[in-house]
Amino acid sequence: EVILVETGGDLIHPGGSLRLSCTGSGFSVSDNYMSWVRQAPGKGLEWVSVFYPGGTIYYADSVRGRFTISGDISKNTVYLQMNSLRAEDTAVYYCTKGRGRTSIYDYWGQGTLVTVSS
Amino acid sequence: EIVLTQSPATLSLSPGERATLSCRASQSVSSYLAWYQQKPGQAPRLLISDASNRATGIPARFSGSGSGTDFTLTISSLEPEDFAFYYCQQRSTWALTFGGGTKVEIK
Q1: Radius of gyration of chain A (CA)
Q2: Are residues B98 and A105, on separate chains, in Cβ contact within 8 Å?
Q3: Is the Cβ of B89 closer than 8 Å to some Cβ of chain A?
Q4: Across B44-66, average pLDDT
Q5: DSSP 8-state class, residue A64
Q6: Is B28 exposed, middle or buried (0-12, 13-18, 19+ CB in 10 A)?
Q7: Which positions in chain B touch A104 (Cβ < 8 Å)?
Q8: Each residue of B7-33: pLDDT tens digit?
Q9: Helix and strand tally (H, E) in chain A?
Q10: How far, in Å, CA of A29 to CA of B11, rounded?
Q11: DSSP per-residue codes, B48-101
């Protein structure tokens, strides 16, 4: 059974930093595109970033230069380091598994809430 | 960035009725379009990939069609559990994008 568990969400002040983690079970992170998708309160879905070992890393314009995605294959875990946080980064952050090397998101985590507020 | 426009924003229907949801892309995405369902307090769930391929376990009443810039998600006969939000997503180019969503509500 495929399971994704996100951790790391918190209340953080503007300008602060936070690292989210996503640990997968039932599959290998090394075989699939892994992405972060966020959803601001009462809003729609926004793709944030993608990671695939071997060089596939992309970011949404809204986070490029502030967020960094990475992975630890030995821990089957993907991370999202978020720096220079802004109020508009407030959202539930979902970790998603792509179907192989695609961005067809066939499994989602339960989400972790990041609140940026003073 | 490819913009996906979903219409209508809200669809008010009764159980048993047919639902037709639209997703229009600002440029061609070929068939690289997926549909997701999201219920309040839950993560999204994949319904349809590559425009018309139902995901595992998705009932046959859900179907997708289209290519290029115009896509449709059809629910042939609404069940009570189908009242939810629906989002389209393109994977034709980075950055990936989602549509703004359609809420299917009980009339």
Answers
A1: 13
A2: no
A3: yes
A4: 97
A5: B
A6: middle
A7: 34, 46, 49-50, 91
A8: 999 999 999 999 999 999 999 999 999
A9: 0, 11
A10: 38
A11: EETTTEEPTT--TTEEEEEETTEEEEEESS--GGG-SEEEEEE-SSSSPEE---
